[in-house]
Amino acid sequence: MEYPVAAATKIYAGSLVCVDGNGYAVPAADTSGYRFVGAAMEQVDNGSGANGDKVIRVRRTGVFEFDAASITQAMVGNAMYAVDDHTFDDAAGPTNDIKVGVLTKYVSATKGWIDIAR
Q: What is the rounded distance in angstroms from the CA atom of residue 23 to the CA atom of residue 2?
């Protein structure tokens, strides 16, 4: 899937991606109005561009390893939510609860695998 990138925005390959309230791709964050759309397939730097000057391709399915704010083995199977473009947490952490997937594998308190399609 492709999304136009917001102005003055850089999105890193492999990072979590949202669209803002205007429909432009931005790095995932715990921000009101953001909606999760997938994992970036490439790096796109629209740092000097206007809204939509560049597009980014994102994966909508797959299982990916990301940083975690504070998870436990008992959370496997639970929904996880965006903290930033490379970090997730359970519902107790983030304020806006932007779901990025389901925890499928616990690695450590600060790392885990999430299925972004669930």
A: 12
Instruction: Identify the H or E element spanning 50.
Output: none
Final residue belonging to a domain, choices 43, 59, 75 = 59
**Residues 83-104: tens digit of each pLDDT:** 999 999 998 778 999 999 999 9
Residue range of the domain that includes 91 = 63-115
The sheet carrying 35-40 orders its strands as: 2-4, 55-59, 35-40, 16-19, 25-27
Q: CA 74 → CA 64, 84, 90, 95, 107, distances in Å?
A: 19, 23, 11, 21, 12
Same domain, 54 and 11: yes
What is the model's pLDDT at position 94?
87
Q: Where are the alpha helices (DSSP H) in the chain?
A: none
**CA proximity to 29, closest of 45, 42, 41, 18:** 18
pTM over 0.90: yes
